[in-house]
Amino acid sequence: MKKNLLLLLLGFFCTQYSFGQTKTWAGTTTDWHTAANWSPTGVPSAANDVVINTGAINPIISSNVSAKSINISVAGASLTVNSGAILTVSNAGTALQINNGGLTNNGTVLITNTNPTEVSQEAAVLLTFSAIITNTGTITVNGGANYGIRMAGSTINNQSGGVITSNGKELIRFGDSNAILNNNAGATLNGTSPATAITLIPGKLNNNGLIDITGSLELYNSNSRLRNLGCGIIKMVGDYYTQSGATTENDGLLQIDGSLNNFGSTSNDGVIRANAYPTLTNHNLLINNNAANNAIFTPFTNSYLSAVQGIFLNAAATVSAGTYTSNNNTFTPGNFSGGTYTLYAKISYDGCTFIVPFSYIRAPTRRYVKTAAAGSGDGSSWANASGDIQAMINASSTNDSVWVASGVYIPLYDGTGNANPANVRHKIFYMKSGVKLFGGFAGTETSFSQRDFKTNRTVFSGDADNNDTNTDGNFISESYTDIQGNNSYHVLGVISCDKLTRIDGITFTAGKSGTTGDPSQTVGSGSLSTVFGPAISIAGAFPTVANCVFIGNDGYYGTTYHNNVNGTDTVRINNSYYLNNRAQFGGGMFIHRGHTLIDNVVLVNNAVFRSNAYRNGGAIAISSNMQVGKIVKFTNMTIVNNSPSSTKAIEIDGDADISIINSIIWNETAVAGGNVNRVSGAGGSLTSSYSLLQNSGAGSSWNGGYGTDGGNNYDGDPLFTNLSDINGADNKFFTTDDGLTLTGCSPGVNTGTNTNVFATDITHSPRPYNSGIADIGAYERQAAATLTTIPTNVSVNKTVICPGNTLTLSAQCSAGTITWYNQATGGTAIGTGNNLNQSPTVNTVYYSACEVGNCKSERVATAEIIISMVSANINLTASISGTAIYASSNTITATNKVLGTANAQYLANNSISLNAGFETSSGAVFTARATPVTACN
């Protein structure tokens, strides 16, 4: 047994020794794979270092082999890898070193330095002393933390069909003026470095093929030269440096995703594209990123621009991006969206063709519309304004805008472009995805900031046959009752439009829906039911609607109808008014499906009238089709006078999660259960917070009709400036004199939340004012609150009484009347004045406020009044954890514990005995007092 173990161990050590030995070429034939050609005998494996130090007969690899390292160390010595063979060399250090000898590769060579530590000057491949590599196959070098290839006094010839890939700290470092790399026509050199890809200090790099690298390229000093010849292409991601004394000569394409830096000599007889250019000698073309349409190309002379064969949207140069005119060096972009693009210039000269990518900013196009066309009418300026809104929308692309001057506009066509449809009610404006439609211009503005949509009203009217009641001559239906004859089913359609689509600064009036029996109408490539949204019908779209007024429309489902088909994006309605509209479902807005955000919106005097009776949802209705998980959020809304008769302003069905935040619902018809109707069986959730809600019972008995009490709600008069004059003395909406602004003592001032609110209110004034706390409602008061000073010396003459006994409330006001309440907010006053007597029957806290007219101060609480029975003799044994008062007309005997959370009083007429077992814990508040106590009457 011992003998066998000894033999096993000897065999193991011998194997290990043989496995790691150096193999030296001693070939009598050229066959690498013959064991007798090596000393010691045996074909090298992945564990063997290989030395080739004779040039008499050189080895040839004809199938797959491996080695730990290879050292070719004498002149005339060489190694050849035949086509189809693979040589793999992997070492924790230099894997291939050639001094004087050579490597010819027609197959595949894989060379790796596995050393994870950076070592000065270490490389996976080291070439010195007239070493030469000739490649027509594939060479892959992985330098890891160290250089890929270092070369001095040596040459690499990458021939046609050859591919050299080098990765590492640097791909290639040239060490002297005799270090030369020739990347010939049809050859490829590529690789990736974390910083510098190729450094010549000095060296010579000649390219007639393709070099594609990541990392900077630096010609470090004199005798460093790069020549990009003929149809050679150099592509690099990184900066290019030609230092003092160095030379760059470009005859092909030098494509730099970085800056071109020249401190030596750089000349261009080909094409260069870089992010930035120094002073250089240009004899052909430079391509400029993000340039103006007449500055994309910088030619030596304009005659060189004839090489530009076009500018394209794709790398194959098959889809034109527009028209390039060489005689004036101008690019006219085609009809594609505004934004930043990579375009491709096709350039041909001297038998070479290059497709060169460059960055291009397509400025959004602005088109102009007036009520009557001007000049050429092409919409290119106010002076050449079009009179056709739909034509300008149709001509636009994503991020383009259409500016519409003040005036009244009635649709000219139906949704197919027919100016004379059989049914005039099919006439409609409709949006194109990503286009921005702005109204509110005087017709002279040169910048968007000059727009005053509050003064310059752009009106889109559905009065298709021009016969609506127009007593005041403004062509706006102040009420749906002004509508006469045949009016458009929809003033504006928004079908399959993305979230970049915007409608802003327009008054929509006189739209009139059809009935359920009317057929749908074709609009562009889609269709709309005639019953959905007489002002705006949104179908499968996610627009933003802002700074708009919806007035005097007569709908079936809403004045605006929102259906984003349960998509993942959101319909947004901001800074807008709904006034005097009517529908059969959702007098203001009907939200059918999908995420919806409503901010800074006023709804006044809208109604639902169906089957000859007013119904719920005069302001808003949410459909039963709303799916689980959809979010509907109402923030800083003001909803007033939308429920005539015994109806509710909002009707909610479906399964959405709905929030009412910083909002006012007021002056609606008082209805049991508040002014929100949740249809029986509706799922999802409804939460109201930081809002002033009529009939909500906030502060006392919460009304579940408003969903979950999210806190900080109020049930009381918002104290509007003038409810009877919605647009104020200036007769302009969106201004600070509007009637629904808040007075200084409104309970809505400084009582909202600043979380997730717009930075401005409906008038575009700052929210919150003076960096304070946001107001409730659509308007932010732009002045300090004028709340009445709070009461002082608030007190009660007794804090412990028997049930039904009388106490006296006292307080003082510096101005106004002392008013008393039995709840912190809301509720009805229980009395006024100092020395008010009350007879509570349960533990109670009273609250006092100073009130001047409609202005009320914050309420100040009294101490809590405890109702306590008086007993003759009391014996306490049970532990006390809360607030408790024990009163005896005779004696109290205590053996109990007063715990740390307790606030306890023992009051006795004769004596209090704290006997063995009595204990007060840390944190407890305990009072024992012998004091006159009489029995309760």
UniProtKB/TrEMBL annotation:
Span of domain Ig-like: 793-867
The keyword Signal is annotated on this UniProt entry: yes
Origin: domain of life: Bacteria
Keywords recorded for this protein, A-Z: Signal
InterPro entries: Choice_anch_Q_dom, GCX_COOH, Ig_7, Pectin_lyase_fold/virulence
One Pfam family cited in the UniProt record for this chain: Ig_7
Signal peptide: 1-20
Keyword Signal: yes
Protein name, UniProt field: Ig-like domain-containing protein
